[in-house]
Amino acid sequence: MKKIIEKALAKGVERAEAFLFENIETDVRYEAGSLKSISDTEEMGAALRLVKDGKLGFATTTKLEDVDGLVDNALATAAEGEPITFEFSAEAERPAPSITDDRIASLTVEEMMKHSEDAIARVLDYEKNVNADSATSRQLQRIGVATCRGFEAEFERTAYEFYVGGLLIEGTNMLHTGASYAGTEFGADHAALADSAIRDIERGRVNVDIRPGETTVVLTPRAVADIFLTLNLGVNGLYVDERISPLAGKLGETILDERITIRDDGVRSGAYFSAAFDDEGVPMQETTVFENGALRSYLTDRRTSARLDHPATGNGLKAKRLIMSKELGKTPSPEITNWVMDGGERSCDELISEVGSGVLVDSIMGIIMANLAAGDFSGNLMYALKIENGKTVGRVKDAMISGNVYKLFRDNLVGLSKEVERTGIMGGIGSHWYPHIVLRDVSIAAKG
Amino acid sequence: MKNRISEVLAKYAGRCDYLEVHIEDTEESRVGFTGSRLSELGRRVDFGGNVRALYKGGWGFASFNSLDRIDEFAGHAVDQARLVGHGTSQLASVEPLVADVALDVINDPRDVSLADKVAMMRAYNEQVLAFHDEIITSSLLYFDRYRRFWFGSSEGAMVYQERVDIGGRVTPVASRGEGSQSYSASFGGSDDFNVARGNEARVDKACRVALGKLDAPKVKAGEYAVVVDPMLGGVFIHEAFGHLSEGDNVYENKNLRDVMVLGRRFGKPFLNVHDTGLDKGCRGYLVYDDEGVPTEKTDLIREGKLVGRLHSRETAGKMGERPTGSARLIDYRHPPVPRMRNTVIESGDSTFDEMIADIDLGIYAISASGGQTNGEMFTFTAADAYMIRNGKLAEQVRDVMLTGNVFTTLDSIDAIGNDLACHDGGGGCGKAGQFPLPVTHGSPHVRIQNVVIGGE
Fold first, then answer.
1. Whole-prediction pTM value?
2. What CATH number was assigned to the domain covering residues A2-203?
3. Contact A322/B433, CB-based, under 8 Å?
4. Reduced to 3 DSSP states, what percent helix, strand and coil does chain A have, rounded to the nearest 5?
């Protein structure tokens, strides 16, 4: 990294920032109950931002031996670039969250296979007609940042991801369930994840009709994560700066129900998105985003922090959509890390039993395509169960949920569970710890 | 490079049933604007490769950036395949291909200076920001990639291909303070930089639509007759059927194989669907796929019945069908899997006016913000929409998301227009962690009955 900075400075640039990413990954994949493939990935690359004549340039490469090419490409873009409006990081005190785990680093392929095989056996033991899939991934990463202002640091992280799922096809009825883990610590309870997939098959095996209209919904932590894609964007410094976010200019105002407190915790021990510093060298931290419903902070990178005159929160990330990795070719921009929400006072079972009739919503498909920045969400109920007399009675299909987060989570909140569970979302960024949330009068569209 | 690949193949092929090496060198330029700011300007060099080994039906795969250590990675891939494999390797046989595919382009994006690309996008951006006071910001992106691929296999294939991929979008964002609305004009292609030029009229239209949506009410939830425009029709067929026709979604799954048997009726006799790699200039254009199989036009639905699917050599081999040149990888970090190229609903004989004439209450859904499927159900979102009332187009509505079932919705298509158009956007298709893969869609106007639409 230092060499990249030195080469850039030697070519007459005024400022420079180098980013280094190295990932050694092993993936074991099971399809239809049997081992399908084992993959190794070894990737490394560097990114360079530099300032020449006051203008910002950017280039990346996986040809690490060709530093000259990297600098020349960045210089070529700087010639056409935008005047820079922020500083690169200087040396600062950094947190040291626990993001490495020897149990991950020393994991063998045979052990990874065993985790998947045991989980699949558990699913097949419940129902042999299930098409059981599983995937196990181990990542050993090194991430570094260096700047012309004396910042030079790197950290290592380990990551473990595990998935087990079952697809039950009866005629043209497909029931897809699955559960996953992702963390920097080896914290997966493989059997419990398999049991969760089994329980979802059990509870969703029978389809039941639903009357369209407004109804009470119980959102599982996974569904909350889907719907909170809206809030993820709402507090994003970029969306605030561009005035796309309805939360622009509303720091301190009460936005949501007062029972809602959410933190973006970039230093949470063992969490997937925790780190010592972000991809611009800003220390990661725990940021209270909503406190008792009031908006306390936006999430910023260095540029939006300067633009908004808002503290830097360490959210400048080169996050990759759809998979949890780094997108080298992207410049850092505000992204969430780990979102943690406070729970309520009732147990999950109490909450559900108090809902006379309604729908338990677990996963929503297509939500990513809604006008999330405006707080609007809409999607197909990919896995949802009808609740009657406080009990789930079967699966609801071919139905859609819609609403606006800033209305429903301000005016229609019935309760939160005291249990707060870790969840991930398909195609999303960030790890999430959310309670079950009950909302009243939510629109459900369905046939009939 | 070819010699290096041959050496590795010769050294390790004896320890497995099949071995292939893929090397790739990509150069990319990106230009993006957000509001008045040139928010993205970069050059990316991405060089790397992978080795994939098959042994007794099991795959080992290793991807890398360091070509110097290719022998080590090849050894890993073979070792892993031997750990995985306990059955039989079944690859559909193909003639080992030896070919060089040089670039065949009309206007090479590499001949256009970065300054000119920035100026082009800046002009679009200024057009957007000057359009109206209520256009508060914008989001624009242009990219081009020049890619070189080397592919060799233990069967004697040795292919060198050059490809160009160009794409982008211009998105005005309108707002009056509470909630923003947007609409994109997108473009893409594989052989002509000029697809990025001359989009001014479409950009104006995008501004008008985004502004219109500020006044448009949210659609009311319900079940409607829907007429989709060619752009949305393309996304519809991609999500509602295309993914289901990919061989890897079917081949390991006995129950689904029973459902997806060739000859099964999916739609009415006037429904014809194909997927093709042959449309030169489209982003989904291919000469050879990433297993060295010549691309083709693959019929998927003929006269309403399932007649084919998209295969890699493995899925074709396991299902006793022929490979279709559909095995694609997004980059060297991933193995090739069956993917779509240009997926098309073929023209019918209805006019647009005929299609809306007998709809009392329906929706005209235009262009797509995206789509998704889980194998059984699908959703897609209209970027713009209008009510149809008493056979006529009526008021604009917003937030129109449609859902359906892959096994039944195609049969609800009861009219197909005579105005087929293909579209290339600046996005792409995502599957198995591989996103965004350049694909194209095509469709005429299509009418679908009984579509569930979310809303308030």
1. 0.95
2. 3.30.2290.10
3. yes
4. 25, 40, 35
